[in-house]
Amino acid sequence: MTDTVLFYVFALLVLGGGVLTITRKSAVHSAIYLIISLIGVGGLYLLQQAEFLFAVQIILYVGGVMLLFLFVIMLVNLEQAATERQFNKQWWIALACVLAVGAELAYVLYRGAAAFQFARPSETPPAPGMGNTEILAQVLFSEYLLPFEVASVLLLVAVVGSVIMAKKRI
Amino acid sequence: MHPVTTAHYLWLSAALLLIGTIGVLTRRNIVIILMSIELILNAVTINLIAFSKYLGQAHGQVFAIFVITVAVAEAAVGLGILIALFRNKETILADEVDLLKW
């Protein structure tokens, strides 16, 4: 019962924040609504017993990525951009395409819900006596060790790349 | 009230994905396009977590960590490109960047 109410509250945060993010004129307002949307996504992780990812979501997205966005918004001059047209000329084609994709997704989900028995979440508990972080660490550092290392190389590339991109003279 | 099922999460994730796609395709401001990409990646992550819970395995959550890693790398490089673009062209509107158009 509480779960259901919380799900709808977080869903409202996620979707409302998302819609306001893409419709606001000012980029700062968009960023703030995006923070609300991301916090809602974090709440959904918590509802699904993914506590570690909830912490990652708050620290990394709300604390890190959004701070980066706000810094960039302050670095680039947005006053002139905010007074101009906000949507491009092909917006109606884009909207038609998105509607088509949405219809496909809705059809697949509507049919799939019956065909694949999506309706009932599994009741099997994970290994007893282990927290979410422990289980995650076990899988990440045994089965997914190589992808984990590759991800660290990706982050190194991103750090070097973003520093070079933002440099005045290369 | 009905209990929340995996299908609820899938519907929510599909809706968030569509909102993000509309943002990417229609907005002119590149900062907001990057924010919409974050929305899309979050929609994917909701899906992964929902299936991770449904199957009772942690693999979906591990994959979600990788998705978040890629999202952060993408945001950092994208904003770096945006700063370089603003320094050279004095604009952050996507349809005014048309050097390769003829």
Structure description:
The complex is a heterodimer of chains A (170) and B (102). Chain A has 170 residues and is an all-alpha fold. Chain A folds into three domains: 86 residues, Four Helix Bundle (Hemerythrin (Met), subunit A) (Up-down Bundle); 34 residues; 40 residues. Chain A is 77% helix and 0% strand. Chain A has seven helices and no strands. The radius of gyration of chain A is 21 Å and the shape is globular. Chain B is mostly helical. Chain B has one domain: Helix Hairpins. Chain B contains three helices and no strands. In chain B, helix 1 runs antiparallel to helix 2. Chain B starts with 5 loop residues before the first helix and ends in a 13-residue tail after the last helix. The relative contact order of chain B is 0.13.
Q: Tell me, what is the CATH class of the largest domain in chain A?
A: Mainly Alpha
Largest interface: A-B, 90 and 75 residues
Q: What characterizes the major β-sheet of chain A?
A: none
Uncertain runs of chain B are none
Rg of chain A, nearest Å: 21 Å
CATH class of chain B: Mainly Alpha
Helix content of chain A: over 70%
Q: What is the rounded Rg of chain B? A: 17 Å
CATH fold naming of the largest domain in chain A: Four Helix Bundle (Hemerythrin (Met), subunit A)
CATH-scheme architecture of chain B:
Orthogonal Bundle
The helix content of chain B, as a percent range, equals: over 70%
Number of domains of chain B: 1
Give the count of helical stretches of chain A. 7
Q: Which range does the strand content of chain A fall in?
A: under 5%
- Give the termini separation of chain A: 58 Å
Order of helices and strands of chain B: HHH
The unreliable regions of chain A are none
Provide the residue-averaged pLDDT of chain B: 89
Number of E strands of chain A: 0
